[in-house]
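Students often ask why inverse folding is considered easier than folding. One informal answer: many sequences map to the same fold, so there is more than one right answer. In these notes we will look at a single instance of the problem. The structure comes first.
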């Protein structure tokens, strides 16, 4: 199994381009199911999750021609509206096929994703929303089976803000008869990127980026050529790594409008951050100051950046309280960070991070995607060698992380 070996202690320095956003790419690829016309998606990150989504579409009969950072999809013929367990279990985002399939073909069989390491993560709101739009849904042997003659518009209130839930229902509503109003919708920039793609396909969507999204259904959607937005979590991870190592980095092709909560906390930690039209420059002189935070749906502080900020706080001056409000079990990186010498207590859904002056390299294990990113940051700071095992988690969300951090001067290599 592949591992990363990191020799820490070097401040990051240099320029790196931000890749396309995984969490925008996945729903946009699923949206290709909504039309019989060709769909081209560009600025795709080269990630296992993206490959899994393309494989899932191919398994249904969609034709896919993949280039390095783009794919051409043709969903004219879909043999079977089916998302099998073996693919869904490796990537929960496969649930994004449900809405488009039932909307266009009147039927879908999608495996239930089951639990995952960071929490229970139910899909009840996806199911409730589609039911409100007239789908008949049953759960049979671990599969969601949905049928509908044609979905109809509905007013849907989601009592928890759900990103993929909002995306699934927004996609389904595009082909429903009548108007759908999604209330308490997710405001994440990736939802808005999906909406822009759907609008270019002929969908009638308003309010994306706010918490009320209105979709007026149409009979059919056209093809599209869409460029995926840059990844704000990857960008934030590079910035947190630069701050923790007391470095200076410039991000190009950065999603500047989507990073406000993260940049505000980096400034509070003492970083100088200059934001250009599509660049972000961060310089951290001296030791970071501890910054408290509480994760929340966008525009709050993203749960997907919580682990990386715990790593930065682990070497900061002072004590920080980091509260996780989205997922119930998202502190698995904490015990691995302790192996590197971090001093962190967990009290309920809050991590109390007592900054220490230095960390020391050790062998650690990645437990999930963002937890892995926090271990990389800690490894970049720690004196001596850190070896991170199970980096397939990292490869789900970061493209060639070792090369790109290497470009910033990190001493990092992939070993088997
Ligand atoms: C998406 C992101 C993930 C991010 C998360 C929160 C993708 C592919 N993944 O995941 O990286 O960490 O948003 O920003 O975009 N919930 C329910 N019922 C539902 C659906 C969700 O109770 O039907 C709850 C979840 O358990 C969780 C909260 O809602 O507590 C938010 O989850 P959700 O936004 O749905 O996460 P994902 O869309 O799976």
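Output (designed amino acids):
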């Amino acid at each position: 199994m592949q591992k990363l070996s990191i020799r820490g202690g070097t401040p990051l320095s240099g320029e790196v381009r931000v890749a396309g956003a995984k969490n925008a790419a996945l729903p946009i690829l699923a949206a290709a199911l909504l039309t019989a016309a060709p769909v081209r998606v560009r600025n795709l990150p080269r990630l296992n999750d993206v490959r899994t989504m393309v494989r899932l579409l191919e398994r249904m009969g969609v034709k896919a021609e993949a280039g390095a950072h783009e794919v051409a999809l043709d969903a004219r013929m879909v043999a079977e509206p089916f998302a099998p367990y073996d693919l869904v279990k490796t990537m929960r985002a496969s649930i994004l096929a449900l809405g488009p399939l039932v909307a266009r073909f009147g039927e879908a069989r999608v495996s239930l994703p089951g639990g995952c390491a960071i929490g229970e993560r139910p899909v009840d709101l996806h199911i409730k929303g589609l039911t409100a739009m007239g789908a008949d849904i049953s759960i049979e042997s671990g599969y969601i089976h949905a049928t509908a003659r044609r979905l109809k518009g509905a007013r849907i209130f989601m009592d928890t803000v759900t990103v993929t839930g909002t995306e699934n229902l927004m996609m389904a509503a595009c082909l429903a008869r009548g108007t759908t109003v999604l209330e308490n919708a997710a405001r994440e920039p990736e939802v808005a990127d999906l909406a822009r793609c759907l609008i270019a396909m002929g969908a009638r969507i308003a309010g994306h980026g706010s918490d009320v999204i209105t979709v007026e259904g149409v009979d059919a959607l056209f093809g599209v050529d869409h460029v995926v937005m840059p990844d704000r979590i990857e960008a934030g991870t590079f910035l947190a790594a630069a701050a923790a190592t007391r470095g200076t980095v410039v991000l190009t092709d950065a999603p500047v409008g989507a990073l406000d909560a993260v940049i505000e906390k980096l400034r509070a930690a003492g970083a100088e951050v200059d934001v250009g039209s599509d660049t972000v420059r961060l310089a951290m002189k001296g030791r970071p100051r501890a910054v408290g935070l509480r994760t929340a749906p966008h525009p709050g502080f993203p749960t997907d950046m919580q682990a990386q900020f715990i790593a930065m706080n682990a070497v900061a001056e002072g004590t920080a309280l980091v509260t996780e409000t989205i997922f119930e079990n998202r502190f698995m990186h904490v015990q691995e960070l302790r192996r590197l010498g971090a001093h962190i207590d967990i009290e309920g859904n809050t991590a109390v991070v007592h900054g220490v002056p230095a960390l020391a390299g050790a062998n650690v294990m990645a437990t999930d995607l963002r937890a892995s990113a926090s271990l990389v940051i800690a490894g970049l700071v720690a004196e001596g060698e850190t070896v991170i095992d199970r980096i397939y988690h990292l490869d789900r969300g970061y493209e060639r992380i070792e090369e790109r951090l290497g470009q910033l001067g990190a001493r990092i290599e992939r070993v088997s």
